[in-house]
Design brief:
It contains 13 helices and 18 strands. With 391 residues, it is an alpha+beta fold. The strands form 5 sheets. Strands 7, 8, 9, 10, 11 and 12 form a 6-stranded antiparallel sheet that branches. The protein has a 4-stranded antiparallel sheet with strand order 1-6-2-3, covered by helices on one side. A 4-stranded parallel sheet has the order 14-16-17-18, with helices on both faces. A hairpin with an 8-residue loop joins β4 and β5. The protein binds guanosine-5'-diphosphate (GDP) and manganese (II) ion.
Length: 391
């Protein structure tokens, strides 16, 4: 789960990482009021969307009067901000107003969970502001990588070494070491999977500030942090995925037009491969899990059809714990109650398969059936193409 920049900064501030003074606004008037409240003579108005690259997309605006703040916010509200990371755009309905910072250096500080080595990787650089991926290509030598064993935690020595490694002044080392250790604490305390402070800046007076912050959490650990779970903003998520997740379905939205409903993640992956091999493009990954009731199958069906790109659907069930008759009942119920008009191909195998096939056949619905996965994939791609040809 991702959160907004201002939320991440609130958390960092709570842990003692310095951040600029700022306030959240839900309207241009409120944004202008925030600038008066904050004081000073320069402000930055920042679109709050779950995406980086806002600066180059016009989502970060430097202003010099409360009139400029009002105008900047007015331009941002209600806009779909299209960034390099979010090509479909993300809706802006809150902006964060901050006092402008006098920047002397932009640095990079990131923490990621390295699942392969079961450690926490700290990535730092004396060159901040741009994407770390870009920097890794352009100047890989400018990146300092430090592995932290979570059972031991970060040592003061490691933090100081990072600070020296990114070329900070001797007078800034203690400050930087404190920022690095506190940020690490945020990361581990809250079960984050990614924390990126980009840029971490050195101001004109030489102090350090987190000017931007991105924080993602491990969904499977959210139950341990209700105060974090509550920060979720569904408007920033893929609406297809949010719908499915609310119903306990393992769903991932994709760009194709063949909807998939499958049991087991492995079979789902294999089915997506077979669809591609047959010349189609899957619209989603969906694993209905084991022992799925007809009602759960109906819900899964609805989740797939929620995607208006879906032009044909493939149901592929290899039932062990599942029951083909339950799946068939769910498919028939969904087909009728959801007034399905697109081609549907069902391939059933395993527990109660004869009963399942009988239910489909006796329903009288134009559901296509197949015996093998290869045949099912070929059939669904063909059916989609035929359906697309106007009669
Ligand atoms: P991102 O583009 O989504 O990563 O948004 P950031 O919050 O990182 O802002 C992008 C860039 O805008 C930063 O790298 C800075 O160069 C610039 N910027 C942001 N806030 C300030 C500020 O207070 N003062 C100045 N001078 N520049 C800022
Ligand atoms: Mn940034």
């Amino acid at each position: 789960m991702d959160i907004h920049e201002y939320q991440a900064k609130e958390i960092l501030a709570r842990y003692g990482v310095p951040v600029p003074k700022g306030g959240l606004a839900y309207s241009p008037e409120q944004a202008s009021y925030r600038s008066t409240e904050i004081g000073g003579s320069g402000w930055v108005v920042k679109a709050q969307v779950h995406s980086g690259g806002r600066g180059e997309a016009g989502g970060v605006k430097l202003c010099h009067s409360d009139g400029e703040v009002l105008a900047a916010a007015d331009e941002l509200f209600g806009k779909r901000l299209v960034t390099r990371q979010a090509p479909a755009g993300k809706l802006v309905y809150r902006v964060y107003v901050e006092e402008a910072t006098d920047i002397s250096r932009e640095l990079y500080l990131g923490f990621v969970l390295d699942r392969a080595s079961e450690t926490i990787l700290i990535i730092a650089s004396g060159e901040g502001g741009m994407d770390i991926e870009e920097l890794a290509v352009r100047a890989p030598e400018a990146i300092v990588r430090t592995v932290v064993e979570p059972a031991v935690g970060i040592t003061e020595f490691q933090a100081r070494e990072i600070a020296f490694g990114i070329g900070l002044e001797p007078g800034q080392i203690s400050d930087a070491s404190r920022v690095i250790r506190r940020a690490y604490q945020v990361f581990t305390d809250l079960d984050a999977t990614m924390l990126e402070i980009n840029p971490l800046v050195a101001t004109g007076e030489g102090s350090l500030l987190a000017l931007d912050a991105k924080l993602s959490f491990d969904d499977n650990a959210l139950f341990r942090h209700p105060e974090v779970a509550e920060l979720r903003d569904r408007s920033q998520e893929d609406s297809r995925e949010a719908h499915a997740e609310d119903r306990g379905l393992a769903y991932v939205g994709l760009d194709g037009d063949i909807g998939c409903m499958i049991n087991g993640a492995g079979l789902a992956m294999a089915t997506m491969d077979m669809i591609k091999l047959a010349g189609g493009e899957p619209a989603n990954f969906l694993d209905i899990g084991g022992g799925a009731s007809p009602d759960r199958v109906l819900k899964a069906f609805r989740a797939v059809l929620n995607d208006t790109n879906v032009a044909a659907m493939l149901v592929n069930i290899f039932a062990g714990i599942n029951r083909c008759d339950w799946v068939a009942e769910g498919v028939v119920a969904a087909y009728t109650s959801l007034s399905v008009t697109i081609p549907v191909v069902v391939r059933l195998a395993g527990t109660n398969v004869e009963e399942g096939q009988r239910i489909i056949a006796e329903s009288g619905l134009p559901i296509l059936t197949a015996d093998s996965l290869a045949e099912a994939a070929r059939l669904v791609v063909e059916a989609k193409q035929n359906a697309a040809v106007p009669a």
